[in-house]
């Protein structure tokens, strides 16, 4: 009995000694894992936030670009020509974002609405916000949001001055925010708690995963503490990631300013949610030291593998297998950092793709997108270039090798010809082709500027007739 007691005592001392060694190591490892999980959660939040902000930014630029085309045509026809109203009438029904088309008013209370809406007798265009906002702009821009009395939805007026009108006049369109709402809904399907767009000046919530707050000021007295704290960040123009307190704890908050519209995109992830899986691991580890060590290794390995797969999925386009927008952006940064001032950014858009969807259905549209992705990858990846699908029928390439202007023109011309020939074989008579904008990479690269410049070149190429390319030089 005494021997057994001694053995038990030695075993107990041994266990205690092991625990004294193992527990500090476990605690240290847990702290390291906790920091790693938190860092990865922050990176994921930043990537998803950037993707959402860029998606809405591209959406807004496309809308404003289309409206500017209408404005240019209106000015060419002239407001003193009755045919100008027939031209405006073609905008209804139009884009899903501005389904009621264009409307116009001048200082003499003349008013025209493409949808056929007739205002009350006391309606004075010159007293409306859209009119005064439009007078300050030569190109279409978004104004302050408001609730449409007919639909009950929050929308913004996009307006601009008509320069050659005999009397001061403004053309405008009401833009609805369904697309922005879909973006925040998609982002919050994961473990992101909140996502919302707000205006820069009035800080009105334009779209939110919590739809009950849409149309309200971010800093209203009824707003939750989280919203009020975010409002203070925006008021001080503090973008990037911050830790913000809410009613139920702290949140990792990412704030992005979309300069083209003066909107802010805010995403919030609960710190507790970010560490939820780690908390489960810690509960298991408390039970036993040695078993917990093994469990920690297994769980850490599994978590690292899942995170790696998640990272790959986040950077890859599911339909085509190419890089997606965020993956391409990161790859572009890495490539330019390795070889500054070398290469060319190319942004491409399929011509007449919408009619493929309309005529044959979206599944066939997906087949066409995969076909183009395969052509893109086969043509450019032989040279080690980076290919991506930015969204919809918009694609991008970074040719990271030294290129002369002559070589670049030959490359793009050959590719565009090849695409046209392939699509003519696959979809005879549908006019499916590709247009491209391209920019040489300057020594000092600002990614957003090179994106905007290249995107503008693309739309200029499409405006000039499609099935072509335009290369612009970038300032060093």
Explain this structure to me?
The structure is a single chain. The chain is an alpha+beta fold and 476 residues long. Helices cover 49% and strands 21% of the residues. The protein has helices at 2-77, 83-89, 129-135, 178-187, 225-235, 271-274, 276-287, 289-315, 325-338, 353-360, 362-380, 405-426, 447-463, and strands at 102-106, 111-113, 141-147, 154-161, 169-176, 194-199, 205-208, 240-246, 249-258, 263-270, 344-351, 386-391, 394-399, 433-440, 469-472. β6 and β7 form a beta hairpin.
Main features:
476 residues; alpha+beta; five-stranded antiparallel β-sheet; 15 strands; 21% strand
Give me a quick take on this structure.
With 476 residues, the protein is an alpha+beta fold. The protein has 13 helices and 15 strands.
Please, what is the oligomeric state? single chain
Measured by DSSP, the beta-strand proportion falls in 15-25%
Helix percent reads: 40-55%
Helices and strands, in order, run as: HHEEHEEEHEEHEEEHHHHEHHEEHEHE
- Please mark out the parts with pLDDT under 50 across 5 or more consecutive residues, or reply none: 296-301
Q: How far apart lie the N and C ends?
A: 87 Å
Main beta sheet: strand number and arrangement? 5 strands, antiparallel
Mean pLDDT: 84
Radius of gyration: 28 Å
